[in-house]
Protein backbone atom coordinates (compact mmCIF):
# COMPACT_ATOMS: atom_id res chain seq x y z
CA UNK A 1 0.00 0.00 0.00
CA UNK A 2 1.50 3.24 -1.09
CA UNK A 3 1.53 6.43 0.91
CA UNK A 4 -1.09 8.13 -1.29
CA UNK A 5 -3.74 5.49 -0.50
CA UNK A 6 -3.00 5.75 3.23
CA UNK A 7 -3.57 9.52 3.19
CA UNK A 8 -6.94 9.11 1.43
CA UNK A 9 -8.09 6.60 4.08
CA UNK A 10 -7.15 8.98 6.90
CA UNK A 11 -9.02 11.88 5.25
CA UNK A 12 -12.15 9.73 4.79
CA UNK A 13 -12.18 8.60 8.40
CA UNK A 14 -11.80 12.21 9.57
CA UNK A 15 -14.80 13.36 7.51
CA UNK A 16 -16.92 10.49 8.88
CA UNK A 17 -15.95 11.39 12.45
CA UNK A 18 -16.91 15.07 11.89
CA UNK A 19 -20.33 14.12 10.46
CA UNK A 20 -21.04 11.79 13.37
CA UNK A 21 -20.01 14.44 15.91
CA UNK A 22 -22.25 17.02 14.22
CA UNK A 23 -25.21 14.66 14.48
CA UNK A 24 -24.68 14.21 18.21
CA UNK A 25 -24.42 17.98 18.74
CA UNK A 26 -27.68 18.62 16.81
CA UNK A 27 -29.56 15.95 18.77
CA UNK A 28 -28.35 17.44 22.07
CA UNK A 29 -29.48 20.95 21.13
CA UNK A 30 -32.96 19.71 20.11
CA UNK A 31 -33.38 17.84 23.41
CA UNK A 32 -32.41 20.89 25.46
CA UNK A 33 -34.87 23.15 23.58
CA UNK A 34 -37.74 20.70 24.11
CA UNK A 35 -37.03 20.48 27.85
CA UNK A 36 -37.01 24.30 28.18
CA UNK A 37 -40.33 24.65 26.33
CA UNK A 38 -42.04 22.09 28.56
CA UNK A 39 -40.94 23.98 31.72
CA UNK A 40 -42.66 27.32 30.70
CA UNK A 41 -46.04 27.79 32.65
CA UNK A 42 -49.23 28.25 30.60
CA UNK A 43 -53.03 28.57 31.08
CA UNK A 44 -54.91 25.82 32.92
CA UNK A 45 -57.95 24.55 31.10
CA UNK A 46 -60.86 22.61 32.56
CA UNK A 47 -61.08 18.99 31.44
CA UNK A 48 -64.06 16.79 30.78
CA UNK A 49 -64.49 13.42 32.44
CA UNK A 50 -65.59 10.74 30.03
CA UNK A 51 -67.35 8.80 32.78
CA UNK A 52 -70.12 11.35 33.71
CA UNK A 53 -69.38 13.95 31.01
CA UNK A 54 -69.20 16.70 33.66
CA UNK A 55 -67.10 19.81 33.43
CA UNK A 56 -64.72 20.57 36.30
CA UNK A 57 -64.98 24.31 37.11
CA UNK A 58 -63.38 26.68 39.58
CA UNK A 59 -66.20 28.39 41.60
CA UNK A 60 -65.84 31.81 43.34
CA UNK A 61 -68.29 33.14 45.98
CA UNK A 62 -68.59 36.33 48.02
CA UNK A 63 -70.43 37.00 51.28
CA UNK A 64 -72.11 40.25 52.33
CA UNK A 65 -74.30 41.31 55.25
CA UNK A 66 -76.94 44.01 55.29
CA UNK A 67 -80.62 44.91 55.34
CA UNK A 68 -82.86 44.12 52.37
CA UNK A 69 -83.72 47.33 50.50
CA UNK A 70 -85.82 45.87 47.68
CA UNK A 71 -87.34 42.54 46.59
CA UNK A 72 -88.48 41.28 43.22
CA UNK A 73 -89.88 38.00 41.98
CA UNK A 74 -86.42 36.54 41.51
CA UNK A 75 -84.12 39.31 42.74
CA UNK A 76 -83.11 40.77 46.08
CA UNK A 77 -81.16 43.93 46.77
CA UNK A 78 -79.37 44.60 50.03
CA UNK A 79 -77.31 47.43 51.47
CA UNK A 80 -73.81 46.08 52.11
CA UNK A 81 -73.00 47.52 55.54
CA UNK A 82 -69.27 46.81 55.12
CA UNK A 83 -68.88 48.53 51.74
CA UNK A 84 -71.72 51.06 52.02
CA UNK A 85 -73.25 50.15 48.63
CA UNK A 86 -76.39 48.42 47.40
CA UNK A 87 -75.98 45.14 45.54
CA UNK A 88 -78.59 43.30 43.46
CA UNK A 89 -78.39 39.48 43.25
CA UNK A 90 -80.51 36.88 41.48
CA UNK A 91 -82.48 34.04 43.06
CA UNK A 92 -82.81 30.66 41.33
CA UNK A 93 -84.07 27.20 42.18
CA UNK A 94 -80.74 26.26 43.71
CA UNK A 95 -80.62 29.21 46.11
CA UNK A 96 -80.95 28.13 49.74
CA UNK A 97 -83.19 30.37 51.88
CA UNK A 98 -82.48 29.85 55.59
CA UNK A 99 -83.43 31.40 58.91
CA UNK A 100 -80.93 32.13 61.68
CA UNK A 101 -81.20 28.49 62.79
CA UNK A 102 -80.28 27.18 59.31
CA UNK A 103 -83.80 25.90 58.71
CA UNK A 104 -85.27 26.31 55.23
CA UNK A 105 -87.86 29.08 54.87
CA UNK A 106 -89.76 30.47 51.85
CA UNK A 107 -88.33 33.47 50.03
CA UNK A 108 -91.60 35.33 50.69
CA UNK A 109 -90.90 35.33 54.45
CA UNK A 110 -87.97 37.72 54.01
CA UNK A 111 -89.17 41.33 54.03
CA UNK A 112 -87.62 44.68 53.27
CA UNK A 113 -85.50 45.80 56.20
CA UNK A 114 -84.59 42.24 57.25
CA UNK A 115 -80.86 41.88 57.94
CA UNK A 116 -79.52 38.95 55.89
CA UNK A 117 -76.25 37.24 55.01
CA UNK A 118 -75.92 36.47 51.28
CA UNK A 119 -73.38 34.22 49.58
CA UNK A 120 -73.30 34.87 45.82
CA UNK A 121 -71.20 34.64 42.66
CA UNK A 122 -69.76 38.13 42.07
CA UNK A 123 -69.51 37.46 38.32
CA UNK A 124 -73.06 36.39 37.43
CA UNK A 125 -74.64 37.84 40.63
CA UNK A 126 -76.44 34.57 41.40
CA UNK A 127 -77.10 33.85 45.07
CA UNK A 128 -76.06 30.49 46.47
CA UNK A 129 -77.47 31.09 49.93
CA UNK A 130 -79.58 33.72 51.72
CA UNK A 131 -79.89 33.46 55.49
CA UNK A 132 -81.18 35.72 58.20
CA UNK A 133 -78.14 37.13 59.97
CA UNK A 134 -77.40 35.46 63.28
CA UNK A 135 -77.63 37.79 66.29
CA UNK A 136 -80.22 40.09 64.70
CA UNK A 137 -82.65 41.71 67.17
CA UNK A 138 -85.86 43.66 66.51
CA UNK A 139 -88.23 46.00 68.33
CA UNK A 140 -91.26 48.23 67.72
CA UNK A 141 -91.03 51.92 68.63
CA UNK A 142 -92.73 55.19 67.68
CA UNK A 143 -91.27 58.09 65.76
CA UNK A 144 -90.88 60.28 68.84
CA UNK A 145 -88.55 57.64 70.33
CA UNK A 146 -85.95 58.59 67.70
CA UNK A 147 -83.50 61.24 68.91
CA UNK A 148 -82.79 62.59 65.45
CA UNK A 149 -80.21 65.10 66.70
CA UNK A 150 -78.03 62.59 68.52
CA UNK A 151 -78.86 59.58 66.36
CA UNK A 152 -79.85 57.35 69.27
CA UNK A 153 -82.84 55.37 70.55
CA UNK A 154 -83.40 54.62 74.23
CA UNK A 155 -85.06 51.24 74.89
CA UNK A 156 -85.27 50.74 78.61
CA UNK A 157 -81.82 51.61 79.91
CA UNK A 158 -80.05 50.63 76.68
CA UNK A 159 -78.87 53.07 74.02
CA UNK A 160 -78.87 52.09 70.34
CA UNK A 161 -77.37 54.10 67.49
CA UNK A 162 -78.54 54.84 63.96
CA UNK A 163 -76.52 56.64 61.28
CA UNK A 164 -75.69 56.65 57.56
CA UNK A 165 -75.54 52.85 57.56
CA UNK A 166 -79.17 52.68 58.72
CA UNK A 167 -81.63 51.93 55.92
CA UNK A 168 -85.06 53.61 56.05
CA UNK A 169 -87.99 51.69 54.52
CA UNK A 170 -91.45 53.18 53.94
CA UNK A 171 -94.83 51.47 54.29
CA UNK A 172 -94.80 50.77 50.56
CA UNK A 173 -91.57 48.80 50.89
CA UNK A 174 -89.58 51.46 49.07
CA UNK A 175 -86.47 53.02 50.49
CA UNK A 176 -86.65 56.40 52.22
CA UNK A 177 -83.74 58.80 52.50
CA UNK A 178 -84.75 61.33 55.16
CA UNK A 179 -85.70 61.00 58.82
CA UNK A 180 -87.93 64.04 58.33
CA UNK A 181 -90.37 61.72 56.54
CA UNK A 182 -90.97 59.87 59.83
CA UNK A 183 -93.76 61.30 62.01
CA UNK A 184 -93.61 61.42 65.80
CA UNK A 185 -96.38 58.82 66.09
CA UNK A 186 -95.43 56.57 63.16
CA UNK A 187 -95.11 52.92 64.22
CA UNK A 188 -91.57 51.75 63.41
CA UNK A 189 -90.07 48.25 63.21
CA UNK A 190 -86.33 48.49 63.89
CA UNK A 191 -83.67 45.80 63.48
CA UNK A 192 -80.02 45.77 64.38
CA UNK A 193 -76.95 43.91 65.52
CA UNK A 194 -75.43 44.61 68.93
CA UNK A 195 -75.95 48.36 69.61
CA UNK A 196 -76.26 49.40 65.95
CA UNK A 197 -79.61 49.86 64.22
CA UNK A 198 -79.34 48.86 60.55
CA UNK A 199 -82.95 49.21 59.40
CA UNK A 200 -85.98 51.32 60.34
CA UNK A 201 -89.22 50.29 58.64
CA UNK A 202 -92.47 52.25 58.86
CA UNK A 203 -95.24 49.81 59.81
CA UNK A 204 -98.00 52.43 59.90
CA UNK A 205 -98.14 56.18 59.46
CA UNK A 206 -99.59 58.37 62.18
CA UNK A 207 -103.17 59.60 62.03
CA UNK A 208 -104.45 63.04 63.02
CA UNK A 209 -107.12 64.79 65.07
CA UNK A 210 -108.43 68.15 63.89
CA UNK A 211 -110.34 70.41 66.31
CA UNK A 212 -113.06 72.44 64.63
CA UNK A 213 -115.36 75.27 65.82
CA UNK A 214 -114.25 75.25 69.44
CA UNK A 215 -116.45 77.64 71.49
CA UNK A 216 -113.48 78.50 73.69
CA UNK A 217 -109.76 77.80 73.93
CA UNK A 218 -110.00 77.38 77.69
CA UNK A 219 -109.89 73.66 78.16
CA UNK A 220 -108.07 70.52 77.12
CA UNK A 221 -108.24 67.47 74.87
CA UNK A 222 -107.58 64.16 76.59
CA UNK A 223 -106.41 61.19 74.49
CA UNK A 224 -106.67 57.70 75.95
CA UNK A 225 -106.49 59.15 79.49
CA UNK A 226 -102.71 59.34 79.11
CA UNK A 227 -102.12 62.39 76.95
CA UNK A 228 -103.48 65.91 77.50
CA UNK A 229 -103.29 68.85 75.09
CA UNK A 230 -104.31 72.37 76.14
CA UNK A 231 -106.64 73.98 73.61
CA UNK A 232 -104.76 77.27 73.84
CA UNK A 233 -101.65 75.49 72.51
CA UNK A 234 -103.43 74.23 69.38
CA UNK A 235 -103.28 76.68 66.48
CA UNK A 236 -106.22 77.05 64.12
CA UNK A 237 -106.37 74.22 61.55
CA UNK A 238 -103.44 72.50 63.28
CA UNK A 239 -103.44 68.70 63.09
CA UNK A 240 -102.75 66.76 66.28
CA UNK A 241 -100.78 63.59 65.46
CA UNK A 242 -101.70 60.26 67.07
CA UNK A 243 -100.64 56.68 66.46
CA UNK A 244 -102.89 54.76 64.09
CA UNK A 245 -105.48 52.67 65.91
CA UNK A 246 -108.44 52.98 68.28
CA UNK A 247 -108.59 55.93 70.67
CA UNK A 248 -110.84 57.27 73.43
CA UNK A 249 -111.19 61.05 73.23
CA UNK A 250 -112.51 63.46 75.87
CA UNK A 251 -112.89 67.19 75.24
CA UNK A 252 -113.14 69.37 78.35
CA UNK A 253 -114.00 73.04 77.77
CA UNK A 254 -114.46 75.45 80.67
CA UNK A 255 -118.18 76.10 81.37
CA UNK A 256 -119.21 73.36 78.90
CA UNK A 257 -120.26 69.77 79.36
CA UNK A 258 -117.54 67.26 78.40
CA UNK A 259 -117.65 65.77 74.90
CA UNK A 260 -116.76 62.07 75.15
CA UNK A 261 -115.97 60.13 71.97
CA UNK A 262 -115.04 56.49 72.75
CA UNK A 263 -113.52 53.90 70.40
CA UNK A 264 -112.55 56.23 67.55
CA UNK A 265 -110.77 54.34 64.76
CA UNK A 266 -108.09 56.53 63.19
CA UNK A 267 -106.28 54.71 60.41
CA UNK A 268 -102.82 55.35 59.03
CA UNK A 269 -102.71 58.83 57.48
CA UNK A 270 -106.39 59.49 58.30
CA UNK A 271 -107.70 62.71 59.92
CA UNK A 272 -110.56 62.62 62.45
CA UNK A 273 -112.44 65.91 62.90
CA UNK A 274 -113.73 66.71 66.39
CA UNK A 275 -116.36 69.45 66.17
CA UNK A 276 -117.06 71.74 69.11
CA UNK A 277 -120.44 72.98 67.86
CA UNK A 278 -122.09 70.12 69.75
CA UNK A 279 -120.71 71.38 73.07
CA UNK A 280 -123.42 72.26 75.57
CA UNK A 281 -122.94 74.86 78.25
CA UNK A 282 -122.33 73.20 81.56
CA UNK A 283 -125.19 73.46 84.02
CA UNK A 284 -124.98 73.59 87.80
CA UNK A 285 -127.67 72.92 90.39
CA UNK A 286 -128.77 75.71 92.72
CA UNK A 287 -130.93 74.84 95.72
CA UNK A 288 -132.53 77.59 97.80
CA UNK A 289 -133.74 76.39 101.18
CA UNK A 290 -135.13 79.26 103.31
CA UNK A 291 -135.37 79.06 107.09
CA UNK A 292 -139.14 79.72 107.02
CA UNK A 293 -142.02 78.06 105.20
CA UNK A 294 -144.39 79.53 102.65
CA UNK A 295 -141.71 81.46 100.73
CA UNK A 296 -141.80 82.63 97.14
CA UNK A 297 -138.45 82.25 95.39
CA UNK A 298 -137.39 83.89 92.13
CA UNK A 299 -134.12 83.60 90.26
CA UNK A 300 -133.77 86.28 87.58
CA UNK A 301 -137.56 86.80 87.79
CA UNK A 302 -138.33 83.08 87.28
CA UNK A 303 -140.30 81.57 90.16
CA UNK A 304 -139.33 78.32 91.87
CA UNK A 305 -140.45 76.34 94.89
CA UNK A 306 -138.23 76.06 97.96
CA UNK A 307 -135.79 73.15 97.66
CA UNK A 308 -136.07 72.86 93.86
CA UNK A 309 -132.89 71.88 92.03
CA UNK A 310 -132.54 74.85 89.70
CA UNK A 311 -130.36 74.09 86.66
CA UNK A 312 -128.27 77.11 85.66
CA UNK A 313 -125.26 77.80 83.45
CA UNK A 314 -122.27 79.59 84.96
CA UNK A 315 -122.88 83.27 85.60
CA UNK A 316 -124.36 85.88 87.98
CA UNK A 317 -127.97 85.67 89.15
CA UNK A 318 -130.36 87.81 91.23
CA UNK A 319 -132.05 85.90 94.05
CA UNK A 320 -135.30 87.08 95.74
CA UNK A 321 -137.02 85.31 98.63
CA UNK A 322 -140.35 86.59 100.01
CA UNK A 323 -142.57 85.35 102.84
CA UNK A 324 -145.54 86.93 104.65
CA UNK A 325 -144.44 88.66 107.86
CA UNK A 326 -140.78 88.73 106.80
CA UNK A 327 -138.55 91.27 105.14
CA UNK A 328 -137.61 90.73 101.49
CA UNK A 329 -134.38 88.75 101.04
CA UNK A 330 -132.27 89.80 98.05
CA UNK A 331 -128.83 88.60 96.97
CA UNK A 332 -126.67 88.54 93.83
CA UNK A 333 -124.87 85.20 93.52
CA UNK A 334 -122.21 83.86 91.14
CA UNK A 335 -122.73 80.27 89.99
CA UNK A 336 -119.56 78.29 89.15
CA UNK A 337 -120.45 74.99 90.76
CA UNK A 338 -123.34 73.20 92.47
CA UNK A 339 -124.54 75.51 95.25
CA UNK A 340 -126.92 75.29 98.20
CA UNK A 341 -128.22 78.64 99.51
CA UNK A 342 -129.94 78.84 102.89
CA UNK A 343 -131.25 82.42 103.25
CA UNK A 344 -132.32 83.63 106.70
CA UNK A 345 -135.43 85.79 106.49
CA UNK A 346 -136.03 88.57 109.05
CA UNK A 347 -139.45 89.07 110.65
CA UNK A 348 -141.37 92.33 110.36
CA UNK A 349 -141.21 93.61 114.05
CA UNK A 350 -141.48 96.94 115.87
CA UNK A 351 -138.42 99.11 115.55
CA UNK A 352 -137.11 98.42 119.08
CA UNK A 353 -137.42 94.66 118.78
CA UNK A 354 -136.02 94.88 115.31
CA UNK A 355 -132.83 96.54 116.53
CA UNK A 356 -132.41 94.03 119.36
CA UNK A 357 -133.00 91.05 117.11
CA UNK A 358 -130.62 92.53 114.58
CA UNK A 359 -127.87 92.89 117.18
CA UNK A 360 -128.44 89.36 118.48
CA UNK A 361 -128.41 87.95 114.98
CA UNK A 362 -125.17 89.78 114.19
CA UNK A 363 -123.53 88.46 117.36
CA UNK A 364 -124.72 84.93 116.62
CA UNK A 365 -123.32 85.11 113.14
CA UNK A 366 -119.96 86.32 114.47
CA UNK A 367 -119.72 83.33 116.80
CA UNK A 368 -120.99 80.76 114.29
CA UNK A 369 -118.70 77.96 113.15
CA UNK A 370 -118.90 76.64 109.58
CA UNK A 371 -116.99 73.49 108.61
CA UNK A 372 -115.76 72.75 105.08
CA UNK A 373 -113.68 70.09 103.36
CA UNK A 374 -111.50 71.12 100.42
CA UNK A 375 -109.89 68.54 98.12
CA UNK A 376 -108.21 68.64 94.71
CA UNK A 377 -107.26 66.31 91.88
CA UNK A 378 -104.35 65.78 92.18
CA UNK A 379 -103.98 66.18 95.92
CA UNK A 380 -101.28 68.23 97.62
CA UNK A 381 -102.39 71.66 96.34
CA UNK A 382 -101.75 74.68 98.57
CA UNK A 383 -104.94 76.30 99.94
CA UNK A 384 -105.24 80.08 100.24
CA UNK A 385 -108.36 81.71 101.76
CA UNK A 386 -108.50 85.45 101.05
CA UNK A 387 -104.78 85.27 100.34
CA UNK A 388 -103.91 83.52 103.62
CA UNK A 389 -102.22 80.12 103.43
CA UNK A 390 -104.25 77.43 105.22
CA UNK A 391 -102.55 74.14 104.30
CA UNK A 392 -102.64 71.58 101.49
CA UNK A 393 -105.45 69.43 100.08
CA UNK A 394 -107.24 67.45 101.32
CA UNK A 395 -108.05 69.63 104.36
CA UNK A 396 -110.98 70.34 106.63
CA UNK A 397 -111.34 73.78 108.30
CA UNK A 398 -113.89 76.25 109.71
CA UNK A 399 -115.04 79.70 108.57
CA UNK A 400 -117.50 82.32 109.68
CA UNK A 401 -120.44 83.32 107.52
CA UNK A 402 -119.46 85.33 104.48
CA UNK A 403 -117.96 85.21 101.02
CA UNK A 404 -114.37 84.04 100.65
CA UNK A 405 -111.83 83.98 97.84
CA UNK A 406 -110.34 80.49 97.45
CA UNK A 407 -107.09 79.75 95.57
CA UNK A 408 -105.47 76.36 94.93
CA UNK A 409 -101.86 76.20 93.75
CA UNK A 410 -99.72 73.21 92.78
CA UNK A 411 -96.47 73.13 90.83
CA UNK A 412 -97.01 72.06 87.22
CA UNK A 413 -100.71 73.01 87.24
CA UNK A 414 -102.66 76.19 86.60
CA UNK A 415 -103.85 78.14 89.64
CA UNK A 416 -107.50 77.45 90.43
CA UNK A 417 -109.56 80.36 91.82
CA UNK A 418 -113.19 80.40 92.98
CA UNK A 419 -115.57 81.90 95.54
CA UNK A 420 -116.83 80.20 98.70
CA UNK A 421 -120.21 81.33 100.01
CA UNK A 422 -120.73 80.48 103.70
CA UNK A 423 -124.37 80.70 104.81
CA UNK A 424 -125.38 78.19 107.47
CA UNK A 425 -123.96 77.34 110.87
CA UNK A 426 -122.42 73.89 111.15
CA UNK A 427 -122.93 73.29 107.41
CA UNK A 428 -120.72 70.47 106.20
CA UNK A 429 -119.87 70.94 102.53
CA UNK A 430 -117.28 68.93 100.60
CA UNK A 431 -115.67 70.66 97.64
CA UNK A 432 -113.39 68.96 95.11
CA UNK A 433 -111.60 70.75 92.28
CA UNK A 434 -109.74 69.39 89.23
CA UNK A 435 -106.46 71.16 88.43
CA UNK A 436 -105.43 71.53 84.80
CA UNK A 437 -101.79 70.71 83.96
CA UNK A 438 -99.66 73.43 82.43
Descriptive overview:
This protein has 438 residues and is mainly beta. β5 (115-120) and β6 (127-132) form a beta hairpin. Mean pLDDT is 84; it is low at 33-56. The longest helix is centred in the first third of the chain and has 36 residues, at 3-38. The relative contact order is 0.06. A 6-stranded mixed beta sheet has the order 3-2-1-5-6-4, with no helix packed on it. It has 4 domains: 59-204, Copper binding periplasmic protein CusF (OB fold (Dihydrolipoamide Acetyltransferase, E2P), Beta Barrel), CATH 2.40.50.320; 207-278, Immunoglobulin-like (Sandwich); 283-357, Carboxypeptidase-like, regulatory domain (Immunoglobulin-like), CATH 2.60.40; 368-438, Carboxypeptidase-like, regulatory domain (Immunoglobulin-like, Sandwich). The chain starts with a helix and ends with a strand. The protein is rod-shaped and about 205 Å long. The protein has 2 helices and 35 strands.
Q: Tell me what the CATH architecture of the largest domain is.
A: Beta Barrel
The CATH class designation of the largest domain is Mainly Beta
Measure the end-to-end span: 149 Å
CATH homologous superfamily of the largest domain - what is it?
Answer: Copper binding periplasmic protein CusF
Computed structural class = mainly beta
Outline the low-pLDDT stretches. 33-56
Largest β-sheet summary: 6 strands, mixed
Q: Strand tally, please?
A: 35
Q: Hey, roughly how much beta strand do the residues contain? A: 35-45%
Q: What strand order characterises the main sheet? A: 3-2-1-5-6-4
If you compute it from the alpha carbons, what radius of gyration comes out, rounded to the nearest whole angstrom?
Answer: 49 Å
Q: Number of helical segments?
A: 2
Mean residue pLDDT: 84
The CATH topology of the largest domain is given as: OB fold (Dihydrolipoamide Acetyltransferase, E2P)
Q: Estimate the helix proportion, in percent.
A: 10-25%
**Count of the domains:** 4
Amino acid sequence: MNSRKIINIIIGLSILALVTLGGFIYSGIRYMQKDQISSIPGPIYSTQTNKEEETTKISVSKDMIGPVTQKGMDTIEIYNIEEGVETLVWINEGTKILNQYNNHIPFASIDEGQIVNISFDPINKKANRISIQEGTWSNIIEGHDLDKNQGIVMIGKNVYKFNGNTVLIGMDGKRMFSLDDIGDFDSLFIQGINKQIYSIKVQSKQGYIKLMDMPSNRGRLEIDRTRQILLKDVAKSELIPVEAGTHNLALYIDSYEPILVPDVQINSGQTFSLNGTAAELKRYNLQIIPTVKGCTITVDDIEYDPGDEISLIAGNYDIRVEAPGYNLYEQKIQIEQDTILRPSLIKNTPAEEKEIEKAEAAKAEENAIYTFSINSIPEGAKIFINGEYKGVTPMRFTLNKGTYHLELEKEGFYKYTTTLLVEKEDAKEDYSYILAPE
